[in-house]
Write a structure and sequence with these properties.
Distance between the termini: 15 Å
Mean pLDDT: 80
Structural class: alpha+beta
Number of domains: 1
Strand order of the largest sheet: 2-5-1-6
Low-confidence stretches: 18-23, 136-145
Largest sheet: 4 strands, mixed
Helix content: 40-55%
Order of helices and strands: HEHHEEEEEH
Number of strands: 6
Strand content: 15-25%
Shape: elongated
Amino acid sequence: MRKALIILILILGFIVIVKAVSPDEEMRVRIIPSSNSAVDLEIKEVVKEATISYLEEQYDKNLENFISNINSTIDEFNFSIQSYNAKGELVNHQFYNKRYNNQALKDEEALTFLVKIDAALGDNWWGVIFPQFLEIDSTDSIPVKSYFYEKLKKWLRS
């Protein structure tokens, strides 16, 4: 009974910590190339760099201000990438379960700066741009081991 109570307290504490750290508001960026051909993937990289540069200029720690900055300048951004037959827009976009920046991102619709290049049929690149701006590239993967989880498993075995 005592172990069960301690486990319950640990679980509830973990939930409280996760809720305190997890932002309620999040924005992502997603860039979809026309195809997976070498030329289209090179174009994706050029558009990606232009997109990151643009979003860095518009970034604000306040989400409403960030959105407003994007909305007031998106036409200029689209003009700058039109030679690649690309267009950006701010939309609610469906994402699926992923790991990013040591966090599990759930299957959900998220506010997204979506850039489609031509047919938009290739493998996409994406990242989280709010509340934190692209801390780790989404292609990076880092194995995570929980110190507390390992200690709890060891303690429960004893």
